[in-house]
Amino acid sequence: MPIFTSLYRRLLLLLVLPLVLFLAISNIVEYLYLRTIVLTEWRQATLLRLEKAARQVDEKVGRIVRVMEAFAQTGGNPLGAKKHEWLLNILEKQEGVSRVRLSWQEGLVPTAAGLGPPRPDGFIPPRIHQVSAPTFALQPDGRTVSLQVRLQDKKNKLLGHLEVALDLATLMPGQEKGGWHLSNLLCLVDKDGRYVVHPDPAQQGQFCWGPPHDELEAILKEAVREEKIGTILKRSYLADRVVGYVRLKEAPWALLLHASSTEILGSYLRFRFSYIFSSLLTILVILALLRWGLGAPLASLRQLSEAANEVAQGRYGTPLPVRSQDEIGRLTQSFNAMVQGLQERDFIQTTFGRYVDAKVAREILRSPVSVRMGGQKRQVAILMTDIRGFTPLAETLTPDMTITLLNQHFARIIAVVQNYDGIIVDFFGDSVLAFFDPLEEPLPPVVRRALKCALQIQSEMAALRTDHPEWPSLALGIGLHAGEVVVGNIGSETRTKYGIVGSAVNLTHRLQALAQDGEVVISEAVYQHTHGAVAVQREIKTELKGFTGELTLYVVTELGVPMARAASGTMG
Question: Architecture of domain 356-571 in CATH?
Answer without folding.
Answer: 2-Layer Sandwich (3.30)
